[in-house]
Design a protein that fits this description.
disordered N terminus, about 50% helix, 4 helices, mainly alpha, binds zinc ion
Length: about 140
């Protein structure tokens, strides 16, 4: 009896430290490829080298929004506490608002792609690669 076996290879998931470093430095968590954004804020849908699709399921990037929100509010809190400490005891809201407004507006925009790659890395740490994920992008296919 002839049976045809179909083998689907599963690419090994990198170690958690590697995943986090790649996520923090806006690299592909799977292969380390850089240059994943267009115009700084738009993350490509797939890694050009390994073909990993960054949005693993619909709504995947809600975690990235959570990371971005926590970073932004953390920086706002640090700015508020430092501002109060510097101005104490003559508190005035205007300088605090002037210092906090750019943080509230710019950090979520500029940190957005990093939050996404970091979330992809965290998600991969919790849920390793499965068969059919990261099976090779255009760069890997052209190298063969
Ligand atoms: Zn990749």
């Amino acid at each position: 009896m002839n049976r045809r076996l179909v083998h689907m290879t599963v690419r090994p998931t990198p170690a958690r430290g590697t995943l986090l470093w790649r996520g923090l430095t806006r690299a592909c968590a799977v292969c380390g490829q850089r240059g994943l954004t267009r115009r700084w804020v738009t993350l490509r849908e797939d890694c050009p080298r390994c073909g990993f699709h960054f949005e693993r399921k619909p709504g995947h990037f809600v975690g990235a929004v959570g990371i971005s929100t926590n970073i932004t509010f953390g920086l706002l809190l640090i700015t508020l506490v430092a501002g109060i400490g510097i101005m104490w005891p003559d508190l005035s809201p205007a300088p605090l608002l002037l210092a906090m407004l750019p943080i509230a507006v710019l950090v979520p925009i500029l940190f957005h792609p990093t939050a996404k790659t970091l979330w992809v890395a965290i998600d991969l740490g919790m849920k390793p690669l499965e068969a059919g994920e990261a099976v090779g992008g255009a760069e890997e296919r052209s190298a063969k």
